[in-house]
Design goal:
- The complex is a heterodimer of chains A (about 160) and B (about 700).
- In chain A, about 10% of the residues lie in helices and about 45% in strands.
- Chain A has about 160 residues and is mostly beta strands.
- Chain A has a five-stranded mixed β-sheet with strand order 8-1-2-10-9.
- In chain A, strand 11 (about 145) and strand 12 form a beta hairpin.
- Residues about 145-155 of chain A have low confidence and may be disordered.
- Chain B has about 700 residues and is α+β, with helices and mostly antiparallel strands.
- Chain B has 21 helices and 29 strands.
- Chain B is about 35% helix and about 25% strand.
- In chain B, helix 3 packs parallel to helix 5 (about 115-125).
- Classes of the chains: A mainly beta (about 160), B alpha+beta (about 700).
- The interface of A and B includes residues 39, 44, 45, 86 and 146 of A.
C-alpha cells in the first residue's frame, strides 16, 4: 500500500494533518476581502494569481475560540487545498512538517466534538502527540448558513 | 484497439461530425435550389467520405446507409432524377440516422442496437424510383465512379484553426489579468524613477499588455453562424409539420460573440423561431389571398451595435393582432378593461411577455402551451440583455434581442460600503443621486418605517446596503448616495457610502462554499489586486423582500392563473376614508404625499383644483366621491398625489395607515363601481380604489377629454 503522507499544521493547540495530495501550496499572509452574510468560518476572498479563492478560518471551522490578539490574526499562515468542489484556502496558526504513515488512522471516538467529528477522517499518534487527519472536501462543506436581515444567524 | 487505431477512429469521428454539420446545412439549401450541381457534388462527397471510412472500420450499418444515400445522390447528380421533398426528407432522415450511429460509435465503439434497414431501403427505392426502374434495386448496387477529392472548404478551414480546451483559455485569461496588475505596479514606479528609458519601457509594456488582453478576450469569441447552422433545418421541419412553406435566411453569421453568450441565447432563439413559424407565418393559401408570396420568409440577423450584439428575428407573417391581445390580456386578468383602453398598441404588444400569456387560438404540438415569451424575456435578461418587439398587422413581426458581447467582462459601477468595494452591474443601474442639501434629500420620503425615493415621478422603495448586508450602520454624513437600480420590472433605490467609477470588470465565479449567499453573483479583481464582490441586484431585492423568489414555471397544460397572474407582490398604500373605512392604492401610482389645507381648494371650470408647488393640480375628495361621510371636519388633510396615465391629480383622504406588501386576493364582491374589489390586508378588509374609474369619472364630469 502507498504510504499516507500528511502535511501537518497547528490550530489552537492541536496538531492536524491533511493528505499531501490535496495540498497545492503554502502561502503567507494575504489581503482578504470579507464576504457579508457568509458562514462564520468564511474569512473572505483572496486573489491567488488571478483566481478568486475562498479563505476559510480553520479556528472557526473546527470550533476553536478566535485568537485573543486580533493583530496577530492577520499574520497567520495559509495552505491552499484542492477539494472536490474546487480550491479553498485554509487559514491556520502554524505550518508543520510532512509525515508518513503506513496504516490508516483510528476512527474518531464519539466523545470528540461534533465540529471535529464532521471533518476528521482518522487519528494518528506522532511523538506522543495526537494528530487529527482532516478530509479536505468535508472541511470545505459549510452548509447553508444565512444571516437574515435582522442580523441574527440561523442554521438552515 | 491499438493507440494508433484509436487516433484514427478519433479522426474519423471528428470528420464525421463535420460532414454532418455540412450536410444538414447544404441539404436545406439544395431543396431550394435543386439545380445547384456544385452543391449536389459536395453533398455527394460527404456521403462518399462517410461510406469509405465506415467500410474501413467495419461499421456495416453506417456503410449500408451511406451507400444507399450515395446511390440516390448519384442519380440526382447525373440528372436521372429530380429532387423532390420526399427525397429531401429521406436524406435528412439519413443524416439523423448517421448522427445516432456516430454518437453510438463515440460512446462505446459499436454501432448500437438501432436498425436503419428500412431507411436504407427507402433511399434505394427512391434512387431507382425513376420511370424505368420496376423493382427495388439491390442494396449492393456498385457505386458510380466519383470524384472523391477532399472537400476543399473544409481543408482550408482546418489549415488555419486548431481546437483549444476552454479551460486553457481561461487560465491564459487569468494570467493576463495578473500581468495587468503587475503592469499597474510597475507604472506606479515611473514617477519615482529618474531614468527616462524606464518610463519609455513601462509605457511600451502598458500598451502591449492592453493589446494582449484584448486579443486573449477575442479567443473566446465564436461566430454565431456555427450555432445557427442547424436553424434552417429546424425551420424547414417545423414548417413542414405546420403545413407551411418557410425560408430562413441567415445574415451576419460571422458576427462574433462569447461562446457562453451564444449558449445562453440558444434556447430563447429556438423558441422565438418556433413562434415565428407556428404563429407568425400564415398558411400558403392565406398568404396568397393577402397578395404575398406563398413561401414565408424569416430573417435571422446578427450585428454589432454600440458594443452589444443585436439579434433580430424578422418574419413577413401576419403580425400581431393587437385587438386580440388586448382582449386576451383582459380575459387573463393582466389588464383591467379601462387600462387596456388607455394603452397604446405598442404597449399592448408587450403583454405577450407576461407570464402565462398566449394568443394561439389552437394549442399546437410545437408551441402555444402558455409558457413562452415570458421565459424568452427572462432568459435574455438573465445575461444582461433586453428584448423588444414590434409588429405591423399583415406585414410581419420583428423581435430584437440585445445581448452583451461577453459575460466574462461587464461594465459595472463600483461603490463603497463599510470600507469595502462592491460592483453593481451597469445593466441594473438606472440613475445615480448624490443628495447633499436638505432640499435635495426631500426626494426621500418615510412612511411608517419604510423609506422611499422619488424617482421620475414615482415613489420607489429605498434600501440601505449596509442594512441588507448586515453591516454596521453608517455614521451620519452630509451627503447621501443613492443608486437607483432595476431588477426585472422592479425599480428601487440603494443607499451606499460612496461611489467610485464606472469600469469594466472581469467576472469570476465564487466557490461552492458561498452558494448559500444569494446576493453576490461573482467577484472581480480590482486594479490594486484586491477582490471586490459583484452584487446580484435581483438577489439583493429578493433578500429585502421586494420581490418574491420566482416559483417554478407553471405546469404545461394547467389552467392559467385566474387572479393576478404575476408572482410579485404589489406595494399598496393604505389610508382611511370616511368613518373607519380602509382603502388602498398601488404604491406605484403614488408620486408623493402632501399635507394640504382644504380651505385652499378652488373651483375652476375643470372641477376642484388646488395650487400647489407652483402648479395647478386637479383634486378628488375620495370620501365625497364615494358618498360617505368625512371622518372629521379638520381643515388640514392628507393629499396623495397620483400619476394617472394622462394626468396628475391629488386624492384628499383621511389618515395614512401603512404601506403593505401582501399577496392581493381580490375578493369577488363589488360594493362600488369605483373599486377593483377588496383585499384582506393585515387582517382587515380593504377596498382597492380603482384609479382608472375614478379619474374617468372625475374628468368626464369636468368635460375634459382624457
Amino acid at each position: 500500500m502507498k504510504p499516507l503522507q500528511l502535511c501537518t499544521f497547528v490550530v489552537g493547540d492541536v496538531l492536524f494533518g491533511i493528505d499531501v495530495d490535496r495540498v497545492l501550496e503554502v502561502v503567507g499572509p494575504m489581503l482578504v476581502t470579507p464576504v457579508p452574510l457568509a458562514a462564520r468560518a468564511v474569512r473572505g476572498l483572496l486573489n491567488l494569481r488571478g483566481q478568486i479563492v475562498t479563505a476559510i478560518d480553520a479556528r472557526a471551522r473546527l470550533g476553536f475560540e478566535p485568537p485573543e490578539d486580533a493583530a496577530h490574526d492577520d499574520r497567520r499562515a495559509a495552505i491552499v487545498v484542492r477539494t472536490d468542489g474546487g480550491i479553498v484556502c485554509v487559514l491556520i496558526d502554524e505550518i508543520g512538517d510532512l509525515v508518513s504513515f503506513d496504516a490508516p488512522g483510528e476512527a474518531p471516538p464519539p466523545t470528540m466534538s461534533r465540529a471535529l467529528r464532521a471533518v476528521v477522517d482518522g487519528i494518528f499518534e506522532l511523538d506522543g502527540r495526537l494528530l487529527l487527519q482532516i478530509e479536505a472536501s468535508k472541511f470545505a462543506e459549510l452548509g447553508a448558513q444565512v444571516v437574515p436581515v435582522t442580523g441574527e444567524e440561523v442554521h438552515a | 484497439m491499438s493507440v494508433d487505431d484509436d487516433e484514427l477512429l478519433q479522426d474519423f469521428l471528428t470528420e464525421g461530425w463535420e460532414c454532418l454539420e455540412r450536410l444538414e446545412r447544404e441539404l436545406v439549401v439544395l431543396e431550394r435550389e435543386p439545380g445547384d450541381v456544385a452543391r449536389l457534388a459536395s453533398i455527394f462527397r460527404c456521403f462518399h467520405t462517410l461510406k469509405g471510412s465506415a467500410g474501413f472500420f467495419g461499421f456495416v450499418k453506417l456503410e449500408a446507409l451511406t451507400h444507399a444515400g450515395e446511390a440516390l445522390l448519384a442519380s440526382l447528380r447525373d440528372g436521372d432524377l429530380r429532387l423532390d421533398s420526399a427525397m429531401t426528407s429521406a436524406l435528412l432522415a439519413s443524416v439523423d440516422a448517421v448522427r445516432s450511429l456516430l454518437a453510438a460509435i463515440e460512446a462505446d465503439r459499436s454501432e448500437g442496437s438501432l436498425e436503419h434497414g428500412a431507411l436504407a431501403s427507402e433511399l434505394t427505392r427512391l434512387a431507382s424510383g425513376g420511370p424505368v426502374a420496376a423493382e427495388p434495386g439491390p442494396v449492393a448496387t456498385p457505386s458510380p465512379p466519383i470524384d472523391a477529392g477532399p472537400p476543399e472548404a473544409l481543408a482550408a478551414h482546418a489549415d488555419t484553426t486548431i481546437r483549444v480546451d476552454v479551460t486553457l483559455l481561461d487560465r491564459v485569461m487569468n494570467l493576463v489579468g495578473e500581468l495587468v496588475l503587475a503592469r499597474n505596479q510597475i507604472l506606479d514606479f515611473v514617477p519615482r524613477s529618474k531614468d527616462p528609458a524606464f518610463a519609455v519601457a513601462a509605457e511600451r509594456l502598458a500598451v502591449l499588455t492592453s493589446d494582449l488582453q484584448a486579443r486573449v478576450l477575442k479567443t473566446r469569441m465564436q461566430p454565431v453562424g456555427q450555432m445557427w447552422n442547424k436553424y434552417p433545418r429546424l425551420v424547414r421541419d417545423l414548417a413542414a409539420t405546420c403545413g407551411k412553406r418557410v425560408e430562413l435566411r441567415l445574415e451576419g453569421t460571422d458576427t462574433e460573440l462569447d461562446r457562453t453568450v451564444i449558449e445562453a441565447i440558444k434556447d430563447p432563439l429556438t423558441h422565438a423561431l418556433r413562434n415565428a413559424v407556428d404563429h407568425g407565418i400564415e398558411r400558403p393559401y392565406h398568404r396568397a389571398a393577402a397578395g404575398k408570396a406563398e413561401q414565408g420568409r424569416i430573417v435571422l440577423r446578427a450585428s454589432h451595435q454600440f458594443g452589444q450584439v443585436l439579434i433580430e428575428i424578422v418574419d413577413d407573417g401576419a403580425g400581431l393582432d393587437v385587438a386580440r391581445i388586448r382582449q386576451r390580456a383582459i380575459e387573463r386578468g393582466l389588464l383591467t378593461p379601462e387600462r387596456a383602453a388607455l394603452l397604446g398598441d405598442r404597449d399592448v404588444m408587450q403583454m405577450v411577455f407576461e407570464p402565462g400569456f398566449s394568443t394561439a387560438e389552437e394549442v399546437t404540438r410545437i408551441s402555444g402551451r402558455g409558457v413562452g415569451m415570458d421565459v424568452v424575456k427572462t432568459n435574455v435578461e438573465l445575461i444582461g440583455g433586453t428584448v423588444a418587439l414590434s409588429s405591423e398587422r399583415g406585414r410581419g413581426t420583428v423581435l430584437e434581442f440585445r445581448v452583451p458581447l461577453t459575460l466574462a467582462i461587464v461594465p459595472a459601477l463600483v461603490v463603497t460600503c463599510a470600507g469595502e468595494r462592491f460592483a453593481l452591474p451597469q445593466v441594473n443601474v438606472q440613475h445615480l443621486l448624490r443628495l447633499e442639501t436638505p432640499e435635495q434629500r426631500a426626494v426621500i420620503e418615510e412612511l411608517s418605517g419604510s423609506r422611499f425615493v422619488r424617482h421620475e415621478g414615482r415613489l420607489q422603495p429605498l434600501l440601505d446596503m449596509r442594512h441588507c448586508l448586515s453591516l454596521p450602520p453608517a455614521q451620519e454624513s452630509e451627503a447621501v448616495h443613492v443608486v437607483v437600480l432595476q431588477a426585472r420590472d422592479h425599480v428601487f433605490g440603494l443607499v451606499v457610502d460612496g461611489m467610485e467609477d464606472l469600469t469594466e470588470i472581469v467576472v469570476k465565479p465564487l466557490g461552492k462554499e458561498l452558494d448559500a449567499v444569494r446576493v453576490f453573483s461573482g467577484a472581480t479583481i480590482m486594479g490594486d489586486g484586491r477582490v471586490a464582490l459583484i452584487v446580484d441586484v435581483m438577489g439583493l431585492a429578493e433578500r429585502a423582500d421586494l420581490i418574491v423568489a420566482k416559483k417554478d414555471a407553471p405546469a404545461d397544460d394547467g389552467p392559467p392563473p385566474t387572479s393576478s397572474a404575476t408572482d410579485t407582490l404589489e406595494a399598496l398604500l393604505v389610508f382611511e376614508v370616511g368613518q373607519g373605512g380602509r382603502m388602498a392604492v398601488p404604491m406605484s401610482a403614488v408620486t408623493r404625499l402632501e399635507t394640504v389645507d382644504r380651505r385652499k381648494v378652488e373651483r375652476a371650470l375643470g372641477g376642484e383644483v388646488i395650487q400647489h408647488r407652483g402648479e395647478i393640480l386637479s383634486i378628488i375628495d375620495v370620501a365625497r366621491e364615494l358618498g360617505t361621510e368625512r371622518a372629521s371636519d379638520e381643515m388640514v388633510t392628507t393629499m396623495i398625489v397620483c400619476d394617472h396615465a394622462t394626468a396628475s391629480f391629488g386624492l384628499l383622504v383621511g389618515r395614512i395607515v401603512d404601506v403593505v406588501e401582501d399577496v392581493i386576493v381580490a375578493q369577488r364582491y363589488a360594493p362600488h363601481d369605483l373599486t377593483r374589489g377588496a383585499a384582506v390586508l393585515q387582517g382587515k378588509v380593504t377596498d382597492l380604489l380603482d384609479l382608472d374609474a375614478l379619474a374617468r369619472r372625475r374628468f368626464a364630469r369636468a368635460g375634459v377629454a382624457s
